[in-house]
Design a protein that fits this description.
The structure is a single chain. With 49 residues, the chain is mainly α. The protein has one domain. Helices cover 20% and strands 0% of the residues.
Length: 49
C-alpha cells in the first residue's frame, strides 16, 4: 500500500474492547520514539461487497 496526503503510516488493529485499544496505545505505540501524533478511527460497521 502506498499513501498520499496527511498520513505516513496506516495500521489496522483488531481488538475486542476500547480498553484493549487504549492499552495497546499506552503500552506500545506511544512508547515508539519519533511518533509526534496519531489519529484513531473506529469502524462502526463493516459493509462487504
Amino acid at each position: 500500500m502506498s499513501l498520499t496526503g496527511d498520513y505516513d503510516v496506516l495500521a489496522e488493529i483488531v481488538v475486542e474492547t476500547p480498553e484493549e485499544l487504549y492499552k495497546i496505545f499506552a503500552d506500545k505505540i506511544d512508547m515508539i520514539q519519533g511518533i509526534e501524533a496519531s489519529n484513531t478511527h473506529m469502524v462502526m460497521k463493516e459493509f462487504i461487497k
